Amino acid sequence: MINSRYQWEQPDIQNQKAINELSETFGISKLIAKILVNRGYDTVETANAFLRPEISALYDPFLLHDMNKAIERLFQAIDNGENIVVYGDYDVDGMTSTAIMTWALELMGANVTYFIPSRFSDGYGPNLDNYQKLAADGMQLLVTVDNGVSGKNEVAWLMSQGIDVIITDHHELPADLPVATAIVHPRHPDGEYPFGGLSGAGVAFKVASALLEEPADEVLDLAALGTVADVMSLTDENRIIVKQGLENLKLDPRPGLSALLAAAGTQLSDIDSSTIGFTIAPRLNSLGRLEDATTGVRLLLMDDDESAKTLAEHVNELNQKRQQLVNDITVAAQAQAQELSADPVLVVAGEGWHEGVLGIVASKLVEQTDKPTIVLTINDNEMKGSGRSVAAFDLFKALDGHRDLMTNFGGHASAAGMTIPTDNLAMIRSVLKDEATKQALDTAQKPKLQIAAEVTASDFTQQNFDDLQVLAPFGEGNPEPLFVVNVDNVDKVKTMSEGKHLRFTAQTAAGVLPIIAFGWGQQADALNGHFSSLQVTGTMSQNTFRGSTTYQLMLKDMAAQGAAILDKRTSRLTKQTFAANATYVFFNKNHYQQLSEYITQPANAVMWHDIDRQTGIQTMVLVDLPESLPQLQELLQNAVPELLVPMFYVKNPVYLQKVPDKPTFAKVFKFVNSFRNIDLNRQLDDAVNHLSIHKLTLQLILKVFLEAKFVIIENGVLNAVPNPAPLNLTETETFQKFMVQRDLERQLIYSTTTELETLLMNLSKQES
């Protein structure tokens, strides 16, 4: 069994009239029209606004709260030559909003500089020490971008010094707002702006547009970059910003971004929203994580191609360093996570882990374990780090009531940062365990996944792929459509990137479908097995290699019924047999006692009857042969692994032994009556040679004779019983057990893989 990571939901909207109308009006396929209707664009008007995001549809920037005040004060500062400082942030939204605001003010002739705080020494948002230093250096007007609304006290100090403050922000508004010259925020409680989902760069773009008295289309690329990087909803005004910004980036990229894309090996023709999320943003973010994000703003604003190339190459190298740091720390963190696998919330900590990448590592562990995770770096008596959570667990709420255990803490439901005294680590873990119980994390539903449609392998065509692009750009609020495909069988399973990722071919009723599965490497063995049913869901992707273009599914999730069965039957056990991380199940107590010492953590050894209704077993290995099929059935109905690996080792298999017939019984009977005091310990091989039969066959016949009281064996010495009572030897318990064992081996050891898979799946079925 492979459990899906998500709860799949497929809308069943029966509005065929709207689907037909949209298809005819816009010349799109019924599939695309259905996706539009399912997403709420069910009229020609709403669909038109979505499909044709034009700059002319942008809202008037002066609808934003305090925009008039902000523009009036900015023009006053420009006219008077005042020293203006744009105060940004160290992430991509902060860099791009700083660049946009600085560009616009410079264009208007302002005397402007910018300041980006350090992640390590300054932290996020308003900082009084920085404000005081800037004031001492002659700042006369502060303009915040992508921050500011949380700085009531800091802003109050500036205002008390006669330094005006214009706040432009998009973050959650506190109950008590700063008293500033202007607060430009799309969700200001006293405002009526039509769209509240702008990024910091989006708000800066609106201020720039207000300054220019027309859409600041020259910086739409930067606004798009900040919007996507900050995972804002790509709907309404953001869709226009990103759509048009990506077009600008493709047609005429600014020197800094052109150089950065070239350093990353990205062609301009390949640019889409994922280019921002997976190529540009991580590289710019590496500056704030490892060095100084001010460099990022400089790269975005520079005009010189050669200087941009040099700086972009440095940024690219820094990103590679960041990737290596993430990989190294993730490996160490994974090892701790395995040791803490019983904890509902993972808290891992290590000496010397780089503070700037801990949030990325936490996200990776959440993805791999489906558990909220906090990753901390230890520095003497203090630990500092970041946490990431899952939809079912409010991380901020869980820790907010325990601030006494932390030196610093902040964040929201899905992400948080904290500083913790090292001595409090055990208490933090205990607190989170209790909070997980309070929030019923163990019974929480899986996050939901919206499925666009069920399709077949034959639907993965150029026509359908091209049709889907009218829905782009994809991202938060407008996800790339996910399709479900029913799979009959899987082959050509290959791992990539040292086992992290997979590629395989799905065999379906409508042909074969190539599948790429990032982050699913641990399922390689399972996919090599066989399921009673398998479904995959993912996006439609285009792959061009050596001039040939094919279409594939980029896996998002999969679900399989019945355990995947991987046939590893063997007649020989070694230490290497038990090298994998698995639950090794024994039916024979002697084998368990002899071999369990070779099975070390995180693997475990268990007798079959000690598994009782266990779920969550990833790999279960059946080491030796059960006594019977009912015994095996009881086990398989009590344990539900993702991967079932039958080995079915038996020391002396009986299936290949010849079944003794009547002449053979008679031959041995005559032999034992012809000799007295046969010492079986010393003379058994002589008897085998004399009778010309297999040793195991002779041993079986002697056991049958002993049960039938045809012979006696005392201290290993064999003698015939004179005149024994007649008996049908094939009805003895010994002979019947031999035949049962022989049939059991036939079904479990000497069957074909297909026959074994069918048998095990039938035994696994729960009674209704």
TrEMBL record:
Any GO MF annotation of the entry: exonuclease activity
Enumerate the spans annotated as Single-stranded-DNA-specific exonuclease RecJ C-terminal domain. Answer: 565-758
Phosphoprotein keyword on record = no
Task: Tell me the Pfam families matching this sequence.
Answer: DHH, DHHA1, RecJ_OB, ssDNA-exonuc_C
Respond yes or no to whether keyword Oxidoreductase is given for this record: no
Where the record annotates domain DHHA1, the positions are 344-435
**Which intervals hold domain DDH?**
83-227
List residues of the RecJ OB domain: 452-557
Keywords carried by this UniProt record: Coiled coil, Exonuclease, Hydrolase, Nuclease
| InterPro entries reported for this sequence | DDH_dom, DHH_sf, DHHA1_dom, RecJ, RecJ_C, RecJ_OB, SSDNA_exonuclease_RecJ
Stretches assigned to coiled coil:
308-335
Q: Organism's domain of life?
A: Bacteria
Family listed: Belongs to the RecJ family.
Q: Which PANTHER family match?
A: SINGLE-STRANDED-DNA-SPECIFIC EXONUCLEASE RECJ (PTHR30255:SF2)
Could you tell me what this protein is called? Single-stranded-DNA-specific exonuclease RecJ
Q: Which organism is it from?
A: Weissella sagaensis
Q: What is the lineage of its organism?
A: Bacteria, Bacillati, Bacillota, Bacilli, Lactobacillales
